């Protein structure tokens, strides 16, 4: 009986040992498999993290690009607003210039006829005035007419030249002036020194100082100057040319006699 029990215990011990050995063998066989699965999982985690990192970098780049576009948009908006203000200001200036041009055109319509009247009046004045540089003055009038017919000359320049001609006419009416020229007397051209005291008197003296003439404005012709005035006329001519000191002169003046 005792032997049977012992055999049973031995058999149970053998079965337990075999079971433990089998379990150890099975455990030994499952470790590499687990390690392989863990490695796969780790690799999958690494790939997932790499994808996450790549997506994050892409999102950051897109964010930076978006911010750059927003900044550029703001800058362009500010610049466009600035340009629009400049355009508005230029349009306002153009409108103002157009109004001024329209006003100038209206002014020209009144000024141009006035300038023609001024030229006509100037020509008439020269013809009626004592013949001081008469040909030169009439030539100036003709040049003014040419200027008025020249499309390349502005209205303001035309008006300036006309007023300049009027100023030149005013200058003839003041001071002692002497100049050399030709006197046509009784069909003969004589080289003389002309002298005029403003517009009060116009005289001429031959270059040899032996003869003199005076212009009679009432008659519109030259007359022989009395010999008594020749020395005074010579002195007057020298005074006009600043060749001698100013002094009292005795000369006939038709205008003074008419004024009395």
Automatic annotation (TrEMBL):
Record's keyword terms, sorted: Coiled coil, Signal
Coiled coil: 80-107
Superkingdom of source: Bacteria
InterPro entries registered for this protein in UniProt: UCP028069 (IPR016866)
Pfam families, sorted: DUF3450
UniProt keyword Coiled coil present: yes
Leader sequence segment: 1-26
Protein name: DUF3450 domain-containing protein
Taxonomic path: Bacteria, Pseudomonadati, Pseudomonadota, Gammaproteobacteria, Alteromonadales
């Amino acid at each position: 009986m005792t032997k049977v029990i012992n055999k049973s215990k031995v058999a149970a011990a053998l079965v337990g040992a075999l079971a433990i050995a089998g379990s150890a063998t099975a455990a030994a066989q499952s470790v590499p498999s687990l390690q392989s699965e863990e490695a796969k999982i780790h690799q999958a985690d690494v790939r997932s993290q790499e994808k996450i990192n790549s997506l994050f970098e892409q999102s950051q780049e897109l964010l930076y690009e978006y911010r750059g576009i927003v900044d550029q948009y703001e800058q362009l908006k500010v610049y466009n607003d600035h340009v629009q203000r400049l355009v508005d200001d230029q349009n306002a200036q153009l409108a103002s210039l157009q109004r001024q041009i329209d006003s100038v055109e209206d002014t020209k319509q009144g000024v141009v006829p006035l300038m023609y009247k001024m030229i006509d009046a100037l020509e008439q004045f020269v013809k009626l005035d004592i013949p001081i540089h008469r040909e030169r003055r009439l030539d100036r009038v003709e040049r003014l007419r040419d200027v008025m017919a020249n499309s390349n000359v502005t209205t303001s320049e035309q008006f300036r030249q006309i007023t300049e001609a009027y100023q030149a006419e005013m200058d003839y009416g003041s001071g002692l002036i002497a100049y050399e020229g030709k006197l046509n007397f009784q069909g003969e051209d004589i080289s003389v020194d002309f002298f005029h005291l403003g517009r009060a008197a116009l005289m001429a003296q031959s270059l040899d100082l032996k003869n003199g003439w005076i212009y009679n404005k009432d008659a519109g012709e030259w007359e022989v100057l009395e010999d008594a005035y020749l020395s005074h006329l010579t002195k007057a001519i020298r005074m006009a040319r600043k060749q001698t000191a100013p002094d009292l002169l005795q000369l006939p003046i038709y205008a003074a006699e008419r004024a009395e």
